[in-house]
Amino acid sequence: MTFWQTIKHDFTEPSRQDPACNSVFEVIFCYPGVWALINYRFAHWFYERKFRLIARIISGITRLITAVDINPGAKIGSGVFFDHAAGLVIGETAIVGDNCLIYQNVTLGGVSLEKGKRHPTLEDGVVVGAGAKILGNITIGAHSKIGANSVVIKDVPANSTAVGVPARILGECDSDPLAHNKLPDINKELMKYLIKRIEILEDCIQNGDKNLCDKEKEINQEYENYLKSLK
Predict the structure, then answer these.
(1) Helix (H, G, I), strand (E, B), or coil: what is residue 75?
(2) b/e map 54-75, b = 16+ CB within 10 Å
(3) Structural domain boundaries in the chain
(4) Cis link prior to 166 (omega < 30° from 0)?
(5) pLDDT tens, 22-40?
(6) Rounded CA gap, 102 and 95, in Å?
């Protein structure tokens, strides 16, 4: 795909990935993420040809206009869509594959001051929820989903879901990239398990329940079955 074909493709992504998009005029005037991406394309073109100052100036102006900070050294594939986009930060050595969907306030950041690859790699088809932080030279496998506000510091296999702080890998993800409401809530299940366990202990103390061990085994088994169902 040529440079201009990629630009054209960038303009068509909102109509494919955002049900709120009604026309090309909305894309031109109401989608700062699209303009941030297109401006990045030009900045990256200069960056690759060693015109680094010009590239950084373009990215700096773009940040002021769109509230999106993309280092021109990053590598971003085709079919990428930044939904809402505000607060998005992508570091210099980050790599974003084709057809990725990234929401607002996402950070693809580094954890080291050393030169070299220090930012994440997102393979094709990855969905990153709002507010997620993906840090370090790690890889998010193809078609994986990162839950909103998660902090990811380890590799995520392909076709997996990662949620939490720090993020936990919970097995295969839903095929619908917009189905954020279907992400498992492991913390909620843990709290339910602990509450049940406290109720059993309180009942045992107050009433001298002799079946404590059986009830404890029962809730332990329920929680273990839940964890196994996520893998």
Answers:
(1) strand
(2) bbbebbeebbeebbbbbbbbbe
(3) 3-182, 186-229
(4) yes
(5) 777 788 788 888 999 999 9
(6) 13
**CA-closest candidate to residue 73, choices 88, 57, 95, 103:** 95
Q: CB within 8 A of 29, min separation 6: which ones?
A: none
Looking at CATH, the fold of the domain delimited by 3-182 is given as: UDP N-Acetylglucosamine Acyltransferase; domain 1 (2.160.10)
Q: Which two tokens stand for residue 127?
A: 């969905």
User: What single letter denotes the amino acid at residue 99?
Assistant: N
Can you tell me which residue has the tokens 């940040």? 63
Give the per-residue pLDDT at 167: 82
**Percent of the chain at pLDDT exceeding 70:** 81
Question: 225 Cβ partners below 8 Å, 6+ apart?
Answer: none
Judge whether 157 and 140 are in contact, CB under 8 Å: no
β-strand pairing of 168-172 with 160-163: antiparallel
Rounded to whole angstroms, the Cα distance separating 66 from 61 reads: 9
Rounded to the nearest angstrom, the gap between the alpha carbon of residue 145 and the centroid of all alpha carbons in its chain is 6
The CA distances from residue 153 to 18, 29, 201, in Å, are 29, 36, 37
Q: What is the mean pLDDT of residues 12-23?
A: 77
Tens digits of per-residue pLDDT, 102-155? 999 999 999 888 888 999 999 999 999 999 999 999 999 999 999 888 999 999
DSSP 89: E
pTM for this one? 0.75
Summarize pLDDT for 53-70 with one digit per residue, the tens.
Answer: 999 999 999 999 999 999
